[in-house]
Amino acid sequence: METAGPRTRAAARLGAHATREEQRKRRPVRRWQRRRIEEEQEEAVFREVVSFTRDPLPARYYDKDTTKPVSFYLPSLEELLAWTPDAEDSFNVALEPLKCRQPPLSSQRPRTLLCHDMMGGYLDDKFIQGSAAQNPYCFYHWQCIDIFVYFSHHLVTIPPVGWTNAAHRHGVCVLGTFIAEWKEGGRLCEAFLAGDERSYQAVADQLVLIAQFFRFDGWLINIESSLSPAAVGNVPPFLRYLSTQLCRQVPGGLVLWYDSVVSSGQVKWQNELNEQNRIFFDSCHGFFTNYNWREEHLDRMVAQAGERRADVYVGVDVFARGNVVGGQFDTHKSLELIRKHGFSAALFAPGWVYECLEKRDFFQNQDKFWGLLGRYLPPHSICSLPFVTSFCLGMGTRRVCYGQEEAVGPWYHPSAQEIQPLFAEHRPEGDGQGWVKTHCCLEDAWNGGSSLLIRGVIPPEVGHVAVRLFSLHVPVPPKIFLSMVYKLEGPSDVGVALELTTGDAGSCHVGGISTLSEVSSRHSPRPLRVPPTKLARWVGHCGQQLSGGWVQRCYEVNLRGCVLQDLWVSFSRPPGSREQEAFVCRLGELQVVDANSLLSPLPRVQAVSVSRVRWQRAAPEEEEEEEEEEEEEEERPARLRLSCALHWSYPLSHVRCFRIHCCRATGSPAEGPPGPEKPALLGLAFVNQYRVVDLAVAAAGPGTDGRVEFLVEPVSREGFLVPKAEWGRAALLYSGPHT
Questions:
Q1: Which of 88, 90, 265, 500 is deepest in the core (most CB within 10 A)?
Q2: Helix, strand, or coil (residue 685)
Q3: Nearest Cα residue to 232 out of 173, 192, 285, 201
Q4: What is the pLDDT of residues 342-361, one digit of tens each?
Q5: Could you report the per-residue pLDDT of 523-542, keeping only the tens digit for each?
Q6: How far apart are CA 522 and CA 18, in angstroms?
Q7: Bridging pattern class, strands 101-102 and 381-382
Q8: pTM for this one?
């Protein structure tokens, strides 16, 4: 990538033998200004002469078939020691920092670890910018787990960034895996463990650097190879050094050891913490046991673990291989014993519900599996604002933006998964008929690819039923703005209301624009009929019917000295009704934001550049398909496929993601920029760069320039649309190759 200035980087890749004339034609042309939404927005313009010369991309970072950026692993010790961060690595850096949570991971409450091992890893989840996968695996019970381990059998497993973004958004920390197995693993371990401290410290330093750079939280160390006395003797200092250095560079970092090698250097799975492996437990943050334990193993471990019982993660193989207490849909039997003894649990490969059961029943089976474990999985609470979710799973059969359909077809993008609720069935105490149950729903969406489906029954003897969706622990600012987007299915007069629970009742003062009627510890704010004047720019549709049958309810609440603890949705029977009321409701979005944060000015996307341009001729069959779609055109230019890299500057702490759009046109340079065209969505980015892949464009005719304009739309953390004046823009002008 050339760096001729932050807003004038040349898009052309100048070859060593390019003529001065070619270089002159490839330089960025003079920038012009165009008025957009009553504000002037500067646009960078880049010129490219079409060339079909291939410029190979680094194989590690890009899929060889599609050139899409991918997450990667390091298969050898040499590659680990040689790795240094470069520009290509930044695609794989997590946007989301680990969210504050309660209780913190450092508390002694028993934890739940999920070890994700699926068919070798790096499947559809490796595509950083998403894919068109149909029926992919999707995990969404995040509030029930505390640690997520991405597992594969490669030496250094770096978690795909989509998993890190989704987990961090829910307050769940993410670990990669360092694994050495069998004879080859033994040779590798001898190479860095059998020597002096400089050898193992070099490996540890690289593991710390990788976690710090890619913004995940630590490592599971899994050595399943016999070690010499010299090598096994260096394992404890290696673990201590790795743990110490990690915590210095990655706040809250974790290093866990898997139960395999014992202090003699032999591979002997113990299925418990004991004197043969305790030295490794004492040298790091936690111990992950093997899976073939019985209750007597747990009994013995109570004394061994002492005050660190929560740091012992008792392994549960969900596939139920070997002599296990319970796996598959009997996994709860293992959890019951583990919690009885006060230990943490490590659930290995819960993707069993996806791999071994019918794909068409995946969501039902996943909900059944986690529902059976619910009593043993205390949820953690998110404790930061803004709190915004559209319930998107990071997948769908179409894309929707605020009620407007943008594209039809399957898509999968784990980074796009938003905060997921507690999935459960709630039945009011003392009532045998009323109930409320939540489900994922891909059939409809307000924003993204899915919504939350809530079904329930209000029995004749009660006025309403409610379901808790989120556990929070948020010290709230003086004034908060809340919003809920929903729609009821079919003819229904059931009332829908947002409720919240506050803590610190002794000092908590509730009041303000919206009077609250308190029921027990829950409050039901009255919706605003019109938005507050200062916030009208953001929330101009409060109380209105929106597109697609959605309705938005808005609330503004004054709170002083309060902690927001839970969010509920309540359903009440229509006035005068005495019959049992069944209802089906879809939730499209919930927002809880600091009202004052909405008054802060937004930064503008700056310095958009176009580089690493690659051209391909469209295949003949693609030309034929496009001609059929546009039969009204008498003559159409030949088609090209454009791939390129976009970079820009924007403070990432302000965004949930970026939406990347394009507009395509042709025209004469003398005519200036063409008129406005409706932008087409290309995809989502979670870093300040995006790779455009195989974008269909028209070839430029003689004496004319082809033109593609790229637009970078920031999506604010508060969940509101950003005015187009704040978007970033860059145009690529291209002409035919010289003959």
A1: 500
A2: strand
A3: 192
A4: 999 999 999 999 999 999 99
A5: 777 777 666 665 665 666 77
A6: 71
A7: antiparallel
A8: 0.90
